[in-house]
């Protein structure tokens, strides 16, 4: 007689990223903004960010990151493509079907809009579909070209955002498998919609930085604690905290409130800036490449973004090597 089978779960089996080739430093920005490297870095932790070249859209970055994730997983197909983005190539139709087609896939495909929380929202939605049997394998992509919606003369936003894409492959497995998503938690508060927004009739993103900082620190801390508790972990059990790379001071404040030492906090914001929905997979790829996260590590992913939206996920990291692409 055999014992009960482990509960089904969505398991991360591949990771891929794409960053535009063009790098914009703080010194580059200071040539046309009333700022300098010291001011930007001290307030954000950012030193440089990548920018898509003219004619390169979200779909281009998403295709490259998706192909890299499938290569990482050793797969050439999937039956769901979920694209988290605030900058779709068109207002209609969604960008995901075109991304799927360019990847040679005849898969269900749709866009998801949750701003900087988009990747965690996408993980949760895709994991639910995988574990329910709606699909066997899902490609979850976070991709944004914020340079298309940021006012280059607005010091509040122009110094913060970068372009990029990151993706993971999820497959049906068991909760005791490395890479298993153990728990996800999502939330929103629409009363804060004006804190991060493109106003009606406007073309550019606006952000109330001080208010966003306060809400982000409080909400990300509470969300991370809650998802860790649901996974049965104490703060001491968390090997790595991978927060949305919005601002280094936010990451530091959340880690302090969680009681996590600096070495357990994954940060790559200095090199890529705030890449919105691409932020967490890009941070995962960097941390995996340099050994900051290893197979078996217990990870908490936490994001906060416009909407207001937030979300967290708890997972055990698999033996997965990220595949990274660089595009013009």
Written overview of the protein:
Pathway: Lipid metabolism; fatty acid biosynthesis. This protein is α/β, with parallel strands linked by helices and 328 residues long. The protein has one domain: Peroxisomal Thiolase, Chain A, domain 1 (3-Layer(aba) Sandwich), CATH 3.40.47. It is 31% helix and 27% strand. The chain contains ten helices and 14 strands. A six-stranded mixed sheet has the order 5-4-6-7-1-14, sandwiched between helices. The chain has a four-stranded mixed sheet with strand order 8-13-12-11, with helices on both faces. The protein has a two-stranded antiparallel ribbon with strand order 2-3. A hairpin with a 3-residue loop joins β12 and β13. The longest helix has 22 residues. It starts with 7 loop residues before the first strand and ends with a strand.
Structure in a nutshell:
With 328 residues, the protein is α/β, with parallel strands linked by helices. 31% of the residues lie in helices and 27% in strands.
Determine the strand fraction and express it as a percent band: 25-35%
Number of domains: 1
CATH fold field value: Peroxisomal Thiolase, Chain A, domain 1
Biggest sheet character: 6 strands, mixed
- In what order do the strands lie side by side in the largest sheet? 5-4-6-7-1-14
Q: How many β-strand runs? A: 14
**CATH superfamily placement:** Thiolase/Chalcone synthase
Instruction: State the end-to-end CA separation.
Output: 58 Å
